Amino acid sequence: MGRNDNSRKGKTSSSHTNKDKGKGKIKARGNAPHKREQAAKNTGSVKEPVKVAAKKSNPVTDGIRLNKYISNSGICSRREADTFIATGLVTVNGKIINEMGYKVKLEDDVRFDGRRLNPEPMSYVLLNKPKGFATTTSTNDTKGNTVMDLVANASSGRITPIGRLGRNATGLLFFTNDDKLKEKLSKKGMERLFHVELDKNLKAADLKEISEGIQIGPKKIHIEEISYVDNKPKKEIGLKIKHMGNSVIREIFDHLGYNILRLDCVTLAHLTKKDLPRGRWKTLTKEELELFSML
Q: How many whole angstroms separate alpha carbon 71 and alpha carbon 90?
C-alpha cells in the first residue's frame, strides 16, 4: 500500500512540476499540429484544399496557331499550311509570317495568297427586329439593348449586321460573318422595302419629288420605288431603297416637313418576314442563300 501511494504521489508531483515549468510558455510538440488537424477533421471544421481546374486555352484571348487558323478556314490541312507558311504565302496584318508555331487572334487579318481567311463556319442570320434595340456591335453599357443581344445564340461565329435600323425602327435585319458577301452588299446595296407611317398625309407633289430623286443640299438621293399603301390613309407609304443606312429615310421626310411615326422594314432583297415573329431570328436556308448570288 505504501509503495503504491508513494508512486501515485511521485506522479502527481512530477505533473505539477511540469506545469510549473511550462507556465507562461507554449511548448510545441512534434505531433500537436497533426492532432489538432485530426481533431478538426473529426468535427468537420477543416476545409479540404480547393482544387483549381487547369486553365483552358481561350482562342479569343490566347490566340491559336497560325496553321490551325488556316486549316479551320477550309483551305488545306495543318501540314500543308506549314508548307505555305514556310514559303511566305501567308500574311498576318500585312506582314509575311514564316515562323512555325506563330499564334494569331480571331480578329487578326490573316491572308493566304492575298485572300483573307475566316476560320469560323459561315453563318447567315435574319432577325425581325423589335423596337428599343440599337443596331450596333458596341458592348458599351450606355447603348442599352442592342440587336446583338437578340442574336447572341444564333451563331458561334462573330456575325455582324449589314445595314442599320434605328432604335425605334422595326423589321428585317441581316447578319453574317461572310466578309466577301458583306463587301459585295456594301458596294452594290441591297433593296429594302419599308412601310413608313407619317404624322400627316403625304402630298402627291412630295411623293413625285421623292420618286424622281430629291435634292437635299449638295446631294441628290435616289430611291427605287415609292407609293401609297393600298387601302390605307395617304400618310402610310411604301418606300423601296438600296441605301443600307437608316438615317437617309428620315432625312428625306424631315426635309419635306414630315415626322416619321413608324418605320418597318418588311422585305430585304428576296427575304420576307413570313413565319418570323417580331424579336425572333432564323438561319437562312440554302435556297435563300443562293439567291444572293443573283444580286
A: 12
pLDDT value of position 61: 52
CATH number, position 102: 3.10.290.10
Q: Round to whole Å and give the CA distance between 207 and 243.
A: 18
Q: What is the pLDDT of residues 235-265, one digit of tens each?
A: 999 999 998 777 899 999 999 999 999 999 9
My answer on whether 146 and 254 are in the same domain is no
Is residue 288 domain-shared with residue 161, that is, in the same domain? yes
The grid coordinates of residue 66 equal 497560325
C-alpha cell at 183: 463587301
> In the chain, count of helices (H) and strands (E)?
9, 17
Distance CA 12, CA 61 (A): 71
Q: Are residues 281 and 172 in the same domain?
A: yes
110 and 124 both lie in a single domain: no
Q: Which residues pair with 91 in a beta bridge?
A: 96, 111
Q: Which of 270, 239, 277 is nearest to 129 (CA)?
A: 277
Q: Express as a percent the part of the chain with pLDDT over 70.
A: 77
Average confidence (pLDDT) over 74-92: 90
Q: How far apart are CA 155 and CA 93, in angstroms?
A: 25
Over the chain, what is the mean pLDDT?
Answer: 82
Range 251-263 burial, b when 16+ CB lie within 10 A, else e: bbbebbebebeeb
Q: What is the DSSP string of 39-52?
A: HHHHHT-SPPPPPP
b/e for 171-209, b at 16 or more Cβ within 10 A?
Answer: bbbbbbbbeebeebbeeebbebbbbbbbeeebeeebbeb
The percent of residues in the chain predicted with pLDDT above 90, rounded, is 52
Residues 111 and 129 in one domain: no
Q: pLDDT tens digits for 137-167?
A: 876 655 679 999 999 999 888 899 998 999 9
